[in-house]
Design brief:
alpha/beta; single chain; 8-stranded parallel beta sheet; 302 residues; elongated; 17 strands
């Protein structure tokens, strides 16, 4: 009745296209949150088959899952707690992103770590007031990376973040931390700021063929969407003008029309904001009308 189809070939294609586009940079392929719903184990295996530079998860549990599934590629995670099993992470060669002093104090010299800098996003990351203490502690550890994350707010704000990130890198080097990789750009910034001269880019949305921009097309790069959702019609009816549809009657038929019921809803991952979007039926676009329900939505087919 309903299914989600994943094209692993498209994901491999997109990775290789991005490698061509971002010449000279390593790519960290982000497979957190079940690879954005595409299947973390399957996506990681597909990327490993084309020689991915590095894989990234959010938390350590996800990274441990990948190692248990036989993934051998370089692997990084960055949402961790001081109580996490860092010894097991070290044994399985999982690199740890560190965004606060408590985690930093929980690690020993053999752990491979990435220092996370809060350059202005205001989420995870070491604030400027902690840099000296953090870098002093980190100078005795195995720092393999320093990174930050852009807010993608405006050019001026992004450049302010870049300046702050560069300041952190310079201070770290002056305090004896050497030989690390730098990474700053995620999907949007990787394409928007090709002049940002850092070692690696983290790609998530682009990897799955999705556009990270609201007002820019990606015709300059040949990406392929990796997911398709398919469902059979579960109902068809003709209604008269004035008929309300779905919860809250956010839609009323303006004229006599036909409605199709599709058995797919937010329980299957359909965003509730999809109301008003188009779907394809027999190759033609028709609008979703009314609220998305847990297991179904309605399309007006005229």
């Amino acid at each position: 009745m309903r299914r989600i189809e994943i094209d692993l070939g498209a994901i491999k294609h997109n990775y290789q296209e991005l490698k061509k586009r971002l010449v000279g940079k390593q790519l960290m392929a982000v497979v957190k949150a079940n690879a954005y719903g595409h299947g973390m184990h399957e996506v990681a295996e597909a990327l490993e088959s084309v020689g991915v530079d590095a894989l990234a998860t959010a938390d350590l549990d996800e990274a441990l899952e990948l190692r248990a599934a036989g993934i051998k590629s370089r692997l990084i995670c960055w949402l961790v707690l001081p109580t996490d099993d860092f010894q097991l992470a070290k044994e399985l060669n999982i690199e740890i992103g560190v965004s606060n002093l408590d985690v930093l104090r929980s690690l020993d010299a053999d752990h491979k770590i990435h220092l996370i800098i809060d350059s202005g996003l205001g989420r995870e990351g070491l604030i400027k007031g902690d840099w000296h203490e953090a870098f002093e502690l980190a100078s005795k550890l195995n720092v393999v990376g320093i990174f930050s994350h852009l807010a993608n707010t405006s050019l001026s704000e992004d450049l302010k973040q870049r300046t702050k990130f560069d300041e952190a890198i310079a201070l770290a080097k002056s305090m004896g931390i050497q030989g690390f990789q730098t990474h700053f750009s995620a999907s949007a910034a990787a394409l928007a700021y090709t002049d940002f001269d850092y070692d690696m880019a983290r790609v998530g949305l682009l990897l799955y063929g999705q556009n990270p921009f609201e007002a820019r097309d990606l015709t300059e790069i040949n990406l392929r969407p990796a997911m398709r959702v398919v469902a059979r019609s579960a109902g068809f009816k003709r209604v008269q003008a004035g008929q309300g549809v779905s919860y809250g009657y956010r839609y009323f038929a303006e004229r006599a029309t036909n409605l199709v019921l599709v058995p797919f809803g937010y329980a299957e991952g359909m965003p509730r904001i999809s109301e008003g979007a188009d779907v394809l039926i027999s190759g033609k676009r028709y609008p979703i009308v009314g609220r998305i329900a847990m297991d179904q939505f309605v399309v007006e087919v005229g």
